[in-house]
Write a structure and sequence with these properties.
Strand content: under 5%
Protein name: Lipoprotein
Oligomer: single chain
Number of helices: 7
Keywords: Membrane, Transmembrane, Transmembrane helix
Shape: elongated
Number of strands: 0
Structural class: mainly alpha
Helix content: over 70%
Organism: Algimonas ampicilliniresistens
Length: about 140
């Protein structure tokens, strides 16, 4: 097995932080009361919260917790990280579907509603690519 470079550890650590932050946001989403949510995000976003379907919330959970698991697997240098990153990416794409097809959600998000989904998908693609590349290089077992 090939020894990973220092950049492997730096990038894998960044992935871990990014996915841990996603888990934090998920926990906030499911634990905030409506009043707390409105205080944090505004009344318009709080009102739109009811339009976000439970299947999308489940996909959100799979995306963030899967991403965290994949990050840990990457740090443990396990090949399975690439597969879990891919599943996490698909779940992230699914969880963003309502933002694009639901008018109340799209309007609540404003003109830049698409920015965060784009960032998440791009980072997810990078995670999958990086894990696959490291696996092909022999850095993962």
């Amino acid at each position: 097995m090939k020894k990973p470079t220092i950049w492997f550890w730096v990038i894998a650590g960044i992935f871990l932080l990014w996915n841990a932050f996603g888990c934090y946001l998920y926990v906030l989403e499911v634990t905030l009361t409506d009043a707390q949510y409105a205080e944090m995000h505004g009344d318009v976003m709080a009102a739109a919260r009811d339009f976000y379907p439970s299947w999308a919330l489940a996909a959100f959970a799979l995306a963030v917790w899967g991403g965290l698991l994949a990050s840990v697997l990457l740090l443990l240098r396990r090949r399975l990280a690439a597969t879990i990153f891919f599943i996490s990416l698909i779940a992230a794409i699914i969880c963003f579907i309502p933002n694009f097809i639901s008018t109340p959600l799209r309007e609540a998000g404003g003109a830049t509603f698409w920015v965060m989904p784009l960032i998440v998908v791009v980072i997810g693609l990078v995670e999958v690519w990086f894990a696959r590349r490291e696996s092909a290089k022999g850095s993962l077992r």
